[in-house]
Amino acid sequence: MRSSSSGETKPKVAVLVGSLRGYHRRAILGIMRFYHLHRPWKLVSDPIAMQERPVRSTFFDVDGAIVDHSKRSDLLPLLERGIPLVNLRTCPDVPEAGHVSNDATAIARMAIDHFAERQFKHLAFCEWQRRGSDIRRRRFEEELDRRQMQGHVYLAKSRTPGNDKDMRLLGEWLEALPKPVGILAHNDVRGRMLIDACALTGLSVPEEVAVLGVDDELPYCMMCQPQLSSVRVDAERIGFEAAAMLNRMIDGEPAPEAPHLVAPTHIVERESTKTLAVSDAVVIAAVTFIRERACDGIQVDDVLDHVGASRSVLERRMKSALGRTPHEEIVRVKIERATEMLRDSDLPHITIAERCGFNYVESMSRLFRSRLNLTPGQVRNRSRY
Fold it and tell me: Each residue of 34-51: pLDDT tens digit?
């Protein structure tokens, strides 16, 4: 234990997760949120820590550490000293540590739901590298099995994703897939590689190949054409929960046997999945109009005027293609937009209701309870901690 200037004895805790990736920077924000709420430790850190590099001897004298490592050998000096560890990944090779990481099953479910909502019948998963992406791939396959669906998988052949051989093999795999296909990439870097491979092979994104990444790392998502949709993981909560777990372990609790898994928050949709895998031009026109204008207070009659179809014809064709009527699609889009605003802003509920086309805040609340089994306040609170 180390003593603070006030004489209070505090543990010395190392945060060894680096800061090169946006995911790690958000996790650090969560760790620091816990720290500022409780101020339980004396903090030290390594801003350039990397998961494939052994812990430096500078940190052998700490009382606890939060790490992000996949190799037991890299953590062995800390383990041999009996230092409590919490790992920001699930690593079976280090059972002595606590583990707080993403819920890969929840990621798979959210991704498959995203593609199913857009009527994709063919789905696939693209691994990142020969080792290191099997958990997300296995959870994706398990979720497809649970739904009695079939999918395709790119099993990475290389430890160096993106080299010439890897890109060539990616292109060959993409060309052989049935179209249109929705692909979940292991992460956003892999998602961008898929978009690049589609460009090299002449495949259109998202019409033939829709691509969804994971992590929502903005540089990778924004700096490609088209821009990449991504599953937004709750890295800040992962950091916060890791800090809370480490604090309990320092106080004498054993490391939990099971990892603490944190579900993703939502999907940030960009151009790489903004499509419908349907061939009915009238349905596509109706859905496009609804998504653009739902929050302007449009009614079904406005949609009918836009597409030039009768109510019975449009309802039948949308029900056949999407499983939803025009009215249900309008309500779905309004709830989706209101959910985004509740999650991402501090606007009053009445303002959100107005901006999303609800006549009254009570109408919005009633729809949230009937469709989501949650109140707007509960939706907002779930995104905070």
Answer: 999 998 999 999 877 776
